[in-house]
Amino acid sequence: MKPSICFATNNPHKLKEIQEILADKFQIVSLKEIGCEEDIPETQPTIEGNSEQKAQYVKDHYQIDCFADDTGLEVIALNNEPGVYSARYAGPQRNSDDNIALVLKNLESKTDRSAQFKTVITLIYKGETKAFEGIVKGEITDKPTGTNGFGYDPVFKPEGYDRTFAELSSEEKNKISHRGLAVEKLVAYLENIV
C-alpha cells in the first residue's frame, strides 16, 4: 500500500504537476480531500518561510503528514523581485497576465534579463521536518510565448533552451523545472525512509 501524504496547495496546476512527477510511488491527497477549505497563511518574508509555514499549518490542524511548496521567480535586475510575492506581484487578484506584464514593464530599461525560478518544499513526515530546494536558471523573454504551463512560464526561457517553459511539454518541463528538481530530492528522501 502506497504511503498517503497531503500536498498543501490549492493550485490545481501544481497538484497535477506533482502527481505526474510522483507517478504511482505515493498516494498524494489534496487539501480538499482532507477537508481543508480555508486559505493557509503565507505571511513569511521568504520562500523558505512560507513553505514551512504552510506545511506546519496542515500538520497542526489536520494531523496528517504533508508537504508544502513555495515558489518564486527571482529576476536579477529587479533585486530578485517578484520573489516571495510572485503570485501577487501585480496585486491581490493573483492574475498571471498582470504579473507578467508588470515584470516586462519593470525590465524595459534593463539589459540584464537573467532570472531563476526557486522552489522550496517542506516535508513533515513521521515527526521529521526537511526542506528540499530546486533552482533553474534562465532569462526573461521580451514577450510571452507558448500556451503550456502557468504563471510566469510564457516569459521564462531556461538555460540551454530556445523555448520558454510554456512552449515545452509538461514532460520536458518536469525533467528540468525547479519544482521537478525539488520533488526529485523529496522523492529520493522518502524512498530511503519508507
Write the layout of secondary structure elements.
Blueprint: E1 4-7, H1 12-22, E2 27-29, H2 47-62, E3 66-75, E4 81-82, H3 96-106, E5 114-125, E6 128-140, E7 156-158, H4 170-176, H5 178-193
Parallel strand pairs: 1-2, 1-3
Antiparallel strand pairs: 3-4, 3-5, 5-6, 6-7
List keywords for this structure.
alpha/beta, globular
CATH topology: Maf protein
- The radius of gyration is 17 Å
Low-pLDDT runs of 5+ residues are: none
Structural class: alpha/beta
What is the total number of structural domains? 1
Percent of residues in β-strands: 15-25%
Biggest sheet architecture:
7 strands, mixed
Question: What is the 3D form?
Answer: globular
Total helices: the number is: 5
SSE arrangement, N to C: EHEHEEHEEEHH
CATH architecture: Alpha-Beta Complex
State the share of residues found in helices, binned by percent.
25-40%
Termini gap: 11 Å
Q: In the CATH hierarchy, what is the class?
A: Alpha Beta
DSSP, total strands: 7
